[in-house]
Design brief:
Layout: H1 3-9, H2 13-44, H3 47-50, H4 55-62, H5 67-82, H6 84-91, H7 97-108, H8 119-130, H9 137-150, E1 166-171, E2 177-182, H10 185-199, H11 214-231, E3 248-249, H12 251-254, H13 258-275, E4 282-284, E5 290-292, H14 297-300, E6 316-318, E7 322-324, H15 326-333, E8 337-343, E9 349-357, H16 361-371, E10 386-390, E11 405-409, H17 410-418, E12 422-425, E13 431-434, E14 445-446
Antiparallel strand pairs: 1-2, 3-6, 4-5, 6-7, 8-9, 10-11, 12-13, 13-14
Helix pairs in contact: 2-5, 4-5, 5-7, 7-8, 7-9, 8-9, 10-11, 15-17
GO molecular function: endonuclease activity; nucleic acid binding; zinc ion binding
Keywords: Endonuclease, Hydrolase, Nuclease
Family: Belongs to the Rv1128c/1148c/1588c/1702c/1945/3466 family.
Length: about 475
């Protein structure tokens, strides 16, 4: 330890604990001051003043702050200028910078279904979730996910939007391979689950701790994972189970139809707007002077449903990535192992039922024989790349039999869960797909056998509908 550590060696344990807390408080105060100073630089200074194309570039070049962290500091400062309630909590040291940034990002891009009058109450609820040293990022993200579910629009949240996925794998000049990517929450959950066993610390035989950095452990884990997949196609076991994707969701939420749920949330948004009408801020007295009314405390008070944000109702949960929408849980539950867990009123498990497969191996073989791959018109992905989809979800009482199942590739499976595409079983016991209204002049189209070039909505002898 360097000279900085010398001053603490003679301190008692109690004094040392107090020193650590005091220094942390001072660092939080200095962080708030840095954000304020950088915000003013962003507002006033130009390339002529600091010589860089952006405040982010200047800050990362003249300090030890990384470019990514510099960008977040600038983003946070700009957001706090628009949200004084969040700025007050941050300046007072009640919320961490990363939590403040999550809240201002929510405010900058609120759910489309949320009325403007509901924003102050939502901010108050998020500040309550982020307040104090026991607040955790997953808790704040859960509260945000719950608000997005309450005021849900037809758009997918950014965390589940697969159209944003990117993976770059490139050879470098020195003969190595650089990997960089940005993937959705479900893909991230699968990746972290697969790497978990192989990237854990491995103490030496004499008990010495693993000296590898987390980044090195993940790289070693990826090497071992790829070696096992190529050699055996087997990931072994961790915690007594084969690595798998786990999603926890309340049975009541899982059984809620997507369109019914959207209608319910829209009604909730309207009720919130009615309960929180815009306040009048100024009046004129008979002398012509302005009497400015103080903003009602109800505007910034957490709404009645704020206490429900941390309960996890209305959202699903994955162990690595945290909150997911119920709609994604329904998609993943179409072809999965399902275990019923009975909880008491406090969320404590009382009993665990038997795990059963929603689509058995025998049914998958029968589906492969009938559909010959993805049944969506014009696709034809092979059966090995497909999943079983319940036409009427089993959580809604749909049976798991061939007449209620259809084989779909991952892309078209998601399409049926997030859009108005419908599938039914025709008189010939073959899947019949119905595109959303406005996609094309023809409303019903048959499943296409693998190898056919016919596109979605296209019938022999009729004009084709645009492909989705």
């Amino acid at each position: 330890m360097g000279h900085q550590g010398d001053r603490f060696r003679q301190r008692s344990n109690r004094e040392l604990l107090c020193d650590a807390v005091s220094l942390s408080t001072r660092i939080a105060s200095l962080e708030a001051q840095r954000v304020a100073a950088v915000t003013e630089v962003e507002r006033r200074c130009t390339r002529t003043d600091h010589g860089y194309a952006s405040t982010k570039g200047w800050l990362s070049s003249v300090t030890l702050v990384s470019p990514g962290a510099a960008g977040r500091i600038v983003e946070l400062g700009v957001g706090l200028a628009e949200q004084p309630a969040v700025a007050e909590a941050f300046d007072a040291g009640r919320i961490a910078p990363e939590h403040a940034l999550l809240i201002v990002r929510f405010c900058a891009r609120p759910p489309k279904g949320m009325p403007a009058e509901a924003l102050p109450g939502c901010v108050a609820a998020l500040l309550a979730a982020a307040d104090g040293p026991l607040a955790r990022t997953d808790g704040v993200r859960t509260a945000i996910a719950k608000l997005e579910a309450i005021f849900e629009s037809d758009e997918q949240p950014a965390s589940e939007d697969i159209d944003r996925n990117e993976l770059f794998v490139s050879k470098t000049l020195n003969g190595r391979v650089a990997i960089r990517g940005d993937v959705d929450a479900v893909t991230g959950e699968m990746l972290l689950t697969a790497l978990s066993k192989f990237s854990a610390p491995r103490p030496a035989e004499d008990g010495a701790r693993d000296l590898r950095t987390p980044g090195r452990r993940r790289a070693d884990g990826l090497t071992q994972l790829l070696s096992m997949l190529l050699a055996f196609g087997d990931l072994g076991h961790e915690g007594g189970e084969r690595p798998h994707l786990s999603v926890h969701v309340h049975a009541r939420d899982l059984g809620q139809d997507r369109r019914e749920e959207y209608t319910r949330r829209q009604a909730g948004a309207c009720a919130t707007a009615t309960a929180n009408p815009p306040a009048s801020h100024s009046t004129h007295d008979k002398h012509g002077t302005d009497d400015t009314d103080e903003t009602s405390s109800d505007e910034t008070r957490a709404p009645g449903w704020a206490d429900d944000l941390a309960e996890g109702r209305g959202i699903a949960w994955s162990p690595w990535m945290g909150p997911l929408t119920v709609n994604t849980a329904r998609l993943l539950g179409c072809d999965a192992n399902v275990t019923a867990i009975v909880l008491d009123d406090h969320g404590v498990p009382l009993s665990v039922g038997r795990t059963h497969r929603t689509v058995t191996r025998a049914q998958r073989r029968a589906l492969a024989a009938r559909d010959r791959g993805c049944a969506f018109p014009g696709c034809g992905a092979p059966p090995a790349q497909c999943e079983g989809h319940h036409i009427i979800h089993w959580a809604d009482g749909g049976p798991t039999d061939l007449d209620n199942l259809v084989l779909l590739c991952g892309a078209h499976h998601r399409l049926l869960h997030i859009t108005d595409w419908d599938v039914t079983t025709g008189r010939n016991r073959q899947p019949q797909f119905t595109p959303p209204a406005g996609v094309g002049p023809t409303r019903t189209c048959s499943a296409t056998r693998r190898g056919s070039r016919r596109r979605a909505g296209e019938h022999p002898g009729r004009s084709p509908a645009p492909a989705p």
